[in-house]
Automatic annotation (TrEMBL):
Record-annotated membrane-spanning stretches: none
Name of the protein in question: Uncharacterized protein
Organism domain of life: Eukaryota
Region described as Disordered: spans on this chain: 72-98, 1082-1122
UniProt cross-references to PANTHER family, sorted A to Z: BHLH DOMAIN-CONTAINING PROTEIN, CXC DOMAIN-CONTAINING PROTEIN-RELATED
Biased segments, Acidic residues type: 1090-1101, 1109-1122
Compositionally biased tracts (Polar residues): 72-81
Classification lineage: Eukaryota, Metazoa, Ecdysozoa, Arthropoda, Hexapoda
Organism: Xenopsylla cheopis (Oriental rat flea)
Amino acid sequence: SYQGVEELETETTYTSIEKSTLCPEKIKKNHNLFTGVAYDNFDRFVETTNGKDTLHDTVGIIYQNIELNTTEESQMSEAPTSSNENNSPNKKKRRRRTFEEITLDEIPYPKRPKMTSELQSTVDDEGTIDCKKYTEIDNIWMVSHALALPDVPMWVGFNSRIYARDDSQQLISYLTPINASPTSTSVVIETMKQSKKIAEDLQQPYIQVTYDLAIAKVALQIQATEKPQFDNLFIHLGPFHIMMAYFKAVGKVISDCGLSNVMVESSLLANGSVNGFLDGKHFNRCKRLHPLVTLGLEILHFKWFLQHDNITLTDDMIEEVKRLQKCEVSSFNVENENLKELMNNYEIYKQQSLNGEHGKTSQFYMIYINLIHHYLNLSRSIRAGDFELFKSVLPKITNLFFMCNQPNYARWTVKYSDNLSRVAETYPDLYQGFQQGCFGIKRTAKSFSRQPIDLVLEQTINADAARRLTGVIHFTNSISARQRWARNHDVRSTIISQVCLELGLQTHQDVSADLTLHNIRKNTEQLHKFMATFERFINPFSDEVPKNQLINISTGKSASPSVEEFLLNIEKKGDFLRKTFISECQLDISRFEKAIKKTPIDNFSKDYMKKKNVRVGGKIQEVKIQRDLFGRMLGISMDYKIDISKILSYPITSVPLSMCHLDGTICKTDKSALLKCLEKEVPHEQPRHIDVLIIDGFFLLHTMKNVPKRFGGISRKMLQMVTQLQALRIDVIFDQYFTPSIKDYEHSQRFESAQLEYIITGPEQSRPNDFAKELKNSNFKEALVDFFILHWATDEMASFIGNKIIHVNFRKCHSFVANSNKVVLSINEELSCPEHEEADTKIIYHACHINYPANIVIRSVDTDIVAIMLAHMHHLKNDSFVWMLTGTGNNLRYVDLTKIHAELGESVCQSLPGFHAITGCDYNPALFRKGKLKPYQLLKKSIEFQKAFIKFGDSELIVNKDEQDNVFNIIQRFICNIYNVRNIIDVDAARLQMFIDSYTVSDVNETFNRKKLRNFDASSLPPCKSELLQQFLRANYICTIWNNAHLKNPTSYGPENNGWILENDQYHFKWFEGDQLPNYVSDSLTTLSENDEERDIEDDQSTDRSSSDEDDEDIDENDENN
């Protein structure tokens, strides 16, 4: 029964505690068996009544070498014999079901621990080891794949074949959880005291303790402060967490270089997973993909080397490669002289590439390959138990931390490396264990399967505790139950193992998962697909790539000089920064914990990032946008005792936070909210028949499911979709792409798509694998529409066209009709409107040029079309009716625009384009969290607002300053109403009123709290007058296009001086005219910027929980198999 099992579990736990309060029963008190402990946090968000007291336990594991010729089952001793009193037949002992919590006296630690121990090793003491054999092994692995030899596994599998097995395995037991978070200094001290006690119980002079960075740095500080109390503890910085941080640093190096696009295109990585991959958040994904991508790049490099030197591998060289695939490491040696010479020459060629002799792009990708080989050597050192390799590779890992602004890891990995370099003198017994590989844990008999200690902790106690059926999820509110669960783990696992053995259910996996045939073939297929994708991108090692430029392999754009300087010298500069830091710390140990200055990360992303400039007193300065920048600048301004109303009349921040996010991206609103408001005005019925169907072509293309593999199939399917509805005339309207364009911002948001030229040669050409992504590429879309026009003109499409007339409006309007099974193509000049960029206005143009009464249906989901169409109803022929067929799937519906127009009246309908443009559309930002519903209700109620918006698009608003001022004043009142500031007609006055409402004090003598300003939410204020004016000008210019959509040439005005500025052949938003701040604060901005940088550095010194349980969701619990 459940009750009986619970009683047995509780009693066995008590028995275990009686034997030892700290060491689990499986751990033998034998000083000859190497033993270590590891601690981490276990966080779970438990539902509590007040939101407090959620689960933050400190959990630990203890691991010990398994004694030779001893099975795991024999580790468990029998329970102690009960006393005679308890065995008396007349007295039955009551078995307990509840385990009493083991409480710890948490002693507060009033001191602030500091690192006072000096760094003993100098930069001259750093030793290097000969990695020639490891390089040869990796080269043979790469060449095996380059030659496409059969059944060649990935890196772990290849190495597991050639490494001999050893018998030094460890058993894992769980320590009693502590009901407190390890972020507390007193809890860290408790773990250190427990570790000392365990060492005493096991009669060992030293013991190693492994933590993640956040706990390790506190433990090292305590060890130095309380010296010599904890001198017998060797504190490890968990290598798994170092790897995670390193993947994040590598992600910064390759961000936006084009490599992630190739990975997505080759189906190695999903588009939505790119950021997680670059941020290093998914460990398994990173450790699988980085080596695979590196292998693919190295093969491309090797093949170019063969081509460059005109080399062909002979049969005897290939046979030697095959022999070496199964040769043990101890005897691994290239015996074929020709192959040895080839490998030596390739190493020279690689070094030349690293030095930039074959071009900057080739150099950058060889640097990336080198960075991943550092990770592979770190992994190899742990898996193979090579302590000298482990010590030598850590400084190379640390170099990247200094360059990629990870100062916490940079600082403490330097300290960790220093401790490792002296371990032979300071911890001689531990040094012997490290030489045997005991700085990692091996849980299986498989070769090359040793794992980082902190990773094993994540895979064991943290993973077990998180399991729904067997973990602590169902009793997270009880620390006593959690402690019983942890201490009883050994008993449970022994019983389960024995039951499985008796039933023959145990499986003995003796090979790496990478060696299974299925995985070998899957990985090889992905590798070949990745390399093949470079045919559509740029091969970084090709002679066609300019040698004097660093090229983005996706877009073909060259990097700026600062980006080249940063990326091509990243290892050298990182090594210099690390050595400089060590030298400074040796001169003054207090330097160790001082801030490490940030290094500007000039990667490819910098070239695509719009800089934020601040205009103060006529000078332009660059200031970093931060969440509290508005409040801090406001505070600085108040220091000059300037009238607050004057301060608030300035923009203050470089981008208006009422219309922009902190990164400069504009605020968007749900445009469909306006359509929903309009739909609710009247009931709707579908048309009895359709005379003319006008389709938004790219919208229809996006709805295509099960996209055919070839362009001919796509063309046929598109025409089938076009002709599904019964209409004798069908107009298919496509966007054009002008350069420059006021949609440049929208296009820039899709920059990740490869903007390379695209050519479609014929119907048999295969489409790109990620078709949906390519639909964001304007060059691809233009080529696709051109192909549709050509293909639909072929006679095979006559059966689809039938008795219909099809118009395709792209650059010109092409008309298709079918006569006697032949397609006749002609240009319709009347319907051609080449000056129109967007399909929205082209659709209106087509509707207004139907010269007979008709039932017109527009197939689209774009709210812009609804607003423009309702304003153009008076341009339609009499007795014409218009519906919008909107939505998809089960939400497909007809919206009767004619009925809505009749219900709302001409005034409201003609004001809609101006209203829609100023409250947020594709070309203009929206007001933060103001939406469309409330502004629309204000519009309907006010004739004054309607008349003002009707004037939008009128040339008078551009050429007549007085008329512009009159309308702008009405729009100011409209904006004030949106922000609930009634009876105020000036937005600057509204800003002041809202500020006063937020900071009014109850006592006039109360001191003003400046700290409140730091958290002031500037996005809650309306834009200032200068910002709103630019929004007004943009909306007016947009309406010159929208309100004249029925004309061939809708506007003669340009975007410049109408809310946009032209820079680098692109239109950018002009946010305001004049100064950003009063010129009194000009001198303070430099100091502010410097303080920001210092504060950002210190932010990294705070507790680092970047690799907590939530972020480690992608850790494989059976990672030793991989």
